[in-house]
Amino acid sequence: MRLIVWLVLGYVIYMVVKGFMQNREKPIPREAPPKGEDAHRDPVCGVYVTEDDAVVGRIEEKRIYFCSMECLEKYREQITHK
Question: Structural domain tally of the chain?
Fold first, then answer.
């Protein structure tokens, strides 16, 4: 019984660590929009991201595209402090 508890606990810890490590990479920063693709400029850091690679935030019923969750969170902090 103890072995099963330790195995389940180990698996849960593994899944938590794996979740934190996934999607930590930012997309390659683009200084100009890619040709032939719909690209949007991140209002925080200024890089261009495609709709497929972007993190989409809804602010006041408007879709805004960001390169990462960090930029989305910074943007939300900026507009709430105004």
Answer: 1
- Report how far residue 38's alpha carbon sits from residue 50's, in angstroms, rounded to the nearest whole number: 6
User: Has this prediction a pTM greater than 0.70?
Assistant: no
Are the CB atoms for 40 and 17 separated by under 8 Å? no
Percentage of the residues of the chain whose pLDDT score is greater than 90: 17
29: tokens are 């920063």
User: In the 8-state DSSP scheme, what is residue 37?
Assistant: S
In whole angstroms, what is the distance from residue 78 CA to residue 75 CA? 5
Distances from the Cα of 59 to the Cαs of 9, 13, 72, 76, in angstroms? 39, 35, 10, 8
